[in-house]
Predict the structure.
Amino acid sequence: MAQILPPFTSSVKLKYVKLGYQYLVNHILTFLLIPIMLGTALEILRLGPVEILNVLKSLRFDLVQILCSSFLIIFVATVYFMSKPRCIYLVDYSCYKAPITCRVPFATFMEHSRLNLKDNPKSVDFQMRILERSGLGEETCLPPAIHYIPPSPTMEAARGEAEDVIFGVIDSLLQKTNLKPKDIDILIVNCSLFSPTPSLSAMVVNKYKLRSNIKSYNLSGMGCSAGLISIDLARDLLQVHPNSNAVVVSTEIITPNYYQGKERAMLLPNCLFRMGGAAMLLSNKRRERRRAKYRLVHVVRTHKGCDDKAYRCVYEEEDPQGKVGINLSKDLMVIAADALKSNITTIGPLVLPASEQLLFLFTLIGRKIFNPKWKPYIPDFKQAFEHFCIHAGGRAVIDELQKNLQLSAEHVEASRMALHRFGNTSSSSLWYELSYIEAKGRMKKGDRVWQIAFGSGFKCNSAVWKCNRSIKAPTDGPWQDCIDRYPVHIPEIVKL
Amino acid sequence: MSENRSRVTVHSKLTWVSSKPLGGKPHELSALDHAMALHTVHVIFYYRANPFERGLFDSDFSLSDLLCMYPPVMGRLARGDGGNWVVKCNDAGVRTLRASVGTTLDEWLRSADASEERDLTVWEDMPGDPIGCPALVFEGLMGTWLDELAIAMLGGRMGLSYVGSGAGAWIGRMDAVLGGRMDAVLVGRRGAVLVMLNEFEGGGLAIGLSCPHMLADPTCATLFFKSWTETNRGEPVCHPPIYHLPALNARRSLSTGINSIKYLETKSKSAESPSGKMATATFRLSHSIIKQCLAQIHDECPDATPFDLLAALFWIRIMRLKMPRHDQKHSLSICVDVRKPIHGPIPYGYFGNALHFSLLSMDAELLDTAGLGHVAGAVHRHVADLHEEELLSAMNWFESRKGENGQYAQPFMMYGPELTCISMEHMITPEGSTCESSMYEAAFRKGEEPVHMTYRIGNVEGEGLIMVMPSPEAGLARTVTVTLSEEQLAELCEDQAIMDLQPTMLLGGKM
């Protein structure tokens, strides 16, 4: 999908031409307005004040006409302000930090794997190869039930993990934002694979004694991109309900879904998925503007489920022995790239500066009319965003996106480091990455962040945030005790 | 081996890791460590109250924090380059098991015997290298090892099963049966340290710690455990571990200690003597009784320590049981730990083996007729004459047995074949020191000291083993554990001289 532009574009002279072109096109209105304003000002000065008054008198305004015009103006202004969508602010968010006893070093993981799969050395070898190349570190965490030999994934253990993660993360959020539980108007919890009755959102309502007229939603089964789907839902609800707070909790409960069989394609998630969770406070209240960290600009959702191959590429099913696991198909990367292209095509016009859009338009027209062999122009998203949060689905995903979007190592550093420190925490990984950028002190006011998540189905969702106020490091968060050690160099293959 | 179903049921198994990733170079084992390769160390602490009631994951993270100081405990034993054993510090973790015992703590202390007590720890046998096979892994649950082994041999395919102690001869036969199927057996590297938490009915907890003798001797296993309790109480660790001692590796040619070297040479050449069924009994002797006895022998041996007294006493009584022949010399192998609390090249915190074995011989006739005081005096003189130079010259001797490529020689039985007596006197703190070192101070919560402590050495052969250890009662009180053949032990327990000491019998089985 990605085409690298021909080498002559990297020559220095062309770079300045490009810069000049960008400045011109992006500020074209300014460039047009300035001469007009100058002209008008010159004309007024030339005419002199007496002449202007004569011109005005000759217009012969009637009182009725003046009143109607002003009412019209006021009416139009009111309609405009009423129909403007409300600003959605992300006041703050918190990420889950697992207790150190849940840590899983590589050697422990491999030993357990050998003991649990003692009749399947090939599967054990496969897991070892995956782990070596996974980009994970030695501090990722698995829930307590998985530490047992063999793992003991009871429902009680799953509920226990859910309580630990969700309550931990909400406690932290309430403390950070000074929010009272009674002030929560909307609650959305998303957890893809664990969906008990009563739901996890009911569990939260019960624990924190939330109001009885709360609007609570529980999204399950929507994969790793469910976090952004929840944000989208919260945004829509906040448009309808004025003056409200919405709490969104994104997590993935690993205990009940740890695959216990020996099929290789299904063992892959075991190696990558780890404990994690995040809670966000979104609000449309005016007064939150002062302390909110981010403002939500766009959410773009792309669903490729109409294609059968995309639908089946991440599929939960039973293996020949009857053990349930998630089957990842071999063409996952291709489908992901395709979904990304689709998403980019939608989000491009919304965020790209005019210069890039024009170039893309010209290349598109050129390809359609003149020569289909022209390479399609890949817009430079680095001009639209300062920071990128790519879902840490695995090293391959990050590599692929880095290549496709032509991002530098620093742009994807947050994703790689979050994968190394926390593993693939599914829908909450985007928030760990955002937290990393903040902890490094790179988040300034006005910076735009692009969060991209992929999920089963196959979905590609993006969210664009704009930083509302500069965030000073050191921040409290999951990176508090280890940010000084990062970034680390992650070798291609870790020798186990 | 108990015929009945064991009262211990293991119900979960997991791995405990440190709070920070450790890593680092492989920890090399010294010559003396390699020499102890055939044995395993098992330590069991009994507590009246269970400090881990809420479950391991809910308790304080004391073990995780402690393990940051002990990378070798977290690692795995493997053959390094050059063929010698090293501990690969790969963070694999301490295997932890939880079990429940179907009886109360007091009932257990009264009625359980040695084989049942073995159920409270995880027994791993060290295959060493005489069979030339890669490390066999023994994990899983404790069953009757004979059944498992029979199934394995008949089935010709060994999954993971247990092999109990005394299995040196069995392993040789296993290799012959399994032949080329050893590749199916090898499952990675061997575990190093294992911990087992056994909960008794009505409260009470027994914590069993096992490790290969190559990695740690009983003293440093106890100190590790003690550090765990100190971390749990929030206190700083008294004796942080020290891993490398340059003094230990220095070569010195010494003329002293020739006796020990001769003794070690004889030991290395002695054939393995298959021992019959062994049994163990524990005698707890009170402070007042020991004081009385010491007063009795004061004339002949004014400086006698309780160890001297008890070693002498038990030696005499056991010799009497063995139909002594008056023309022979009787020997007692004395095992002493050479760590010194303050001075000396081997500090208390040294993590590794620092045991010294030496031989004390006496004519049978003299042993029979001379009084307790005389024998105690002989023991006392023997122990007092031991210096660290002796240990260093023994170390030199082990080093000198290295092969051409630097590989250490085959290990041999260090405990045995004679009657061996182990002294734990170094664990008794002299009055007035700042840091308590006695193992009975190892309390997880203030005020909950252990009620009993057991040491077991795996794979001991020969005539028997006597261990003189401290008691919960401070002062001169001691606990003596005796391992002998069954018949001899039964007679010993009825021996008049011993009964005169009014011992409390513990863990003697259903007697």
Notes: Chain A touches chain B through 24 residues (CB under 8 Å). DSSP finds 16 helices and eleven strands in chain A.
